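W.,

You were right to be curious about this one. When I first looked at the sequence I had no strong expectations either way, so I just let the prediction run and decided to look at it fresh. Below is the sequence, 519 residues in total, followed by the output.
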Amino acid sequence: MTPWFLGIDLGTGSCKSVVVGEKAQILGFGAGDYAGSTALQKWNEQDPESILAGMVQSVQIAVERAGVKASDCQALSMGGALHTLLALDRSGKPLTGVFTWADGRGSRQAQATRQALQAIELYQHSGCPAHGIYPLYKILWLRQEKPEVYAMAARYITAKEYVFEQITGQQIVDYSLASGSGLLNIHNLDWDPLSLDLAGIKPGQLSQTASPLTTFRGINPGLAGALGIPVDTLVVLGSSDAANSTLGAGAIHSWQATCMVGTSGAFRTIAPRPILDSAARTWCYALDETHWLVGGAINNGGIALSWLKDVVNQAVSQSPANTELSFDDLIDLAGQAGVGAGGLVCLPFFAGERSPNWNMNARGVLFGLTLQHDIRHIARSLLEGVAYRLRSISEILSDLSGDIREVRASGGFSHSGLWPQIIASAIGRDLLVPAWGETSSLGAAFWAMQAAGALSIFEKAGELVAIGDQYPPQPEQVAIYDRLYRIYTGLYASSINAFDQIAELQTEIGPTQPDKART
């Protein structure tokens, strides 16, 4: 018998699954994409059945590649993306697609709340600043803009809850995902009356909250067959993708932090108590009864580089050569520009801003352009701009939670040697990159291992995470980044009024206004 455990990560763009052994050694890995008719649909509103299908595909691939016996599966656990929302009618039929974190339809409702005195009290209860990313404000949007859907909605759930119910028949949500809705009281771990009153919903419209170590026996037979695991497999509730990413990176203690850059980005730590910021610059989500996830997130991580790649390739596609650039090509070009990008500073707010200022009117800025700058400097300035965003959160987090002595990396950026070094020097701390990069799926597997008895306590998970690379701050880089960071922060402060003005104008004229032909 070779015992194995399954960790499933229901991410925003795809599902990733990993099969691990008793010492968390990687036995097999698989990924399944979510079908979507358009890129906008894939990222903003998704078909719940396509998420379920992506999960099945990823597990099938992971189990097949692992070459393990189905009967040796000891437990599985699942993580889910934060801030998703799906409205169901009384029969359990979806009334909407799955709203993802990228869906901005609650922004106006969040802004109105942010300007009210109620915002501070809501933050103190829920740990969530007033921002359209949270499902609370997406429900408010439905209430105001789609009253017919709002009136028919019997339940509001996350994408993970939908999949978990298909697998187990259980209507339940872990503390972390519940906390990421803006509707949970992080102090008593129950639905918050103030938040519910604002949304105009009742506790019965939400699932029962529970610890990530809550377990169930029994899987839908049809899905068990499709997944290639026994019907009586132990199913562990698990946590959110953000919590699992931190756990899978081995950042278990309060003196450790995780720096994540994927499509978006985050800087977070696990604390033994709720930690709130008097200015509501950071968030605080419950993880279990004795741990809270504290940090800040940025909208613009890899998506900033993706924007540049698309812009360049759009032009290239119209040239005779038609040779498109990849992400790796852009990273290589950025490496040719040198530290500081020749004095080019980027405010990378291409998708607005979350932490620390929660300003959705913030816009992208390239400052300091000269005739000597080219695509290499622009690419480098984007990477450095994201690093400055993460530094701003790390400084606040250090003030709130105490000295952070070690930072672990997670997300796609860790595969590049250049970007981790830029961030290490920008934040002035060693950056450790785990040998296994898919930290969210591994973190999910850790919950399965703990519930099944293969992992004694939560804190032991860090001992199972091997480090692949380490990036210490480079003194000569630190000196330059310190100077540029001061320019960056000053530039942001001086642009606030202009952000509001240009956002209003962009709303009025739209993204494209072709010139009228002369008559």
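Here's what jumped out at me. Residues 300 and 362 are 11 Å apart (CA to CA). And, maybe more interesting for your project: The chain is about 40% helix and 20% strand.

Coffee later to discuss?

I.
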